[in-house]
Automatic annotation (TrEMBL):
Keyword list, A-Z: Membrane, Transmembrane, Transmembrane helix
Transmembrane segments: 224-243
Protein's name in the database: FHA domain-containing protein
Organism: Acinetobacter nematophilus
The organism's place on the tree of life at top rank: Bacteria
Domain FHA: 23-72
Matching SMART domains: FHA (SM00240)
Length: 244
């Protein structure tokens, strides 16, 4: 199982460190994770792999080892996403894919059990219940048959026979009823002569004025105006000559 550390701060910020065995952290030249900061002890801490789990151990460092901002004095097992800190240098713990899958499966809730209702087979003594939709359809059909119009019933029954008609009404040979009272007409108002036909007054129809007639009238008026102007000019000239 290979764990990884991603540097969040310090000289290795942004880099990843692989942990596949026990590793020493510190400023000593023999350290597996070498940190040159002055606040790091020569043998600051150690990473330990125990049964695919990653543990961190503080080696009595001067500035301490922290897990999620809590200083540790004993071995601490690390989980995916934990923040491990040596003095002020922080690393993000990245668990292997297999460990992440196992942790995810443990968090998945067990789906609820499906309850299967027993199927009851009807017997001869067990009453059979019809669906609500079937009963409603039967009621609708029955109501529709009852609410037929009187005209439809009469068309189905046909005309009543002569024996079923009113016995007081006598029928002639032509099949027409006799002795039936005829209603009287409405009275005629006084002063109204019903023998004199009323002729509607005809409106005078004016002949439509055509376009040609309008043009002729316009030209005629123009000529009259022109002659009047010419006459006035001639009279003005004559008066001028006389009084000169």
């Amino acid at each position: 199982m290979t764990w990884k550390l991603q540097a969040i701060s310090g000289e290795l910020e942004g880099q990843e460190v692989t942990i596949d065995r026990d590793m020493l952290v510190g400023r000593h030249q023999d350290a597996d994770l070498l940190l040159q900061s002055a606040e790091i002890s020569r043998r600051h801490a150690a990473f330990l792999l125990k049964e695919d789990a990653l543990w961190v151990q503080d080696l009595k460092s001067s500035n301490g080892t922290f897990v999620n901002d809590i200083r540790i004095d004993q071995d601490k097992m690390l989980m995916d996403g934990d923040i491990v800190q040596f003095a002020s240098i922080k690393f993000n713990v990245l668990a292997p894919a297999k460990v992440q899958d196992t942790a995810h499966q443990s968090e998945v809730e067990t789906p609820p059990a499906v309850v299967v209702e027993p199927v009851i087979t009807p017997t001869a003594d067990t009453p059979v219940q019809q669906p609500v939709e079937a009963v409603a359809t039967a009621e609708i059909k029955e109501t529709a048959s009852v609410e037929r119009s009187a005209a439809e019933q009469m068309s189905e029954q046909g005309m009543p026979e002569l024996s079923a008609r009113d016995r007081n009404v006598q029928i002639t040979r032509e099949g027409m009823p006799s002795g039936v009272a005829v209603p009287k007409p409405a009275p005629i108002p006084e002063g109204v002569d019903i023998h004199t036909p009323v002729v509607p007054e005809a409106d005078e129809v004016k002949a439509p004025v055509t376009r040609v007639q309008e043009e002729v009238e316009t030209q005629k008026n123009a000529k009259v105006g022109l002659m009047t102007v010419v006459s006035l000019i001639i009279l003005a000239i004559i008066a001028w000559l006389l009084f000169k």
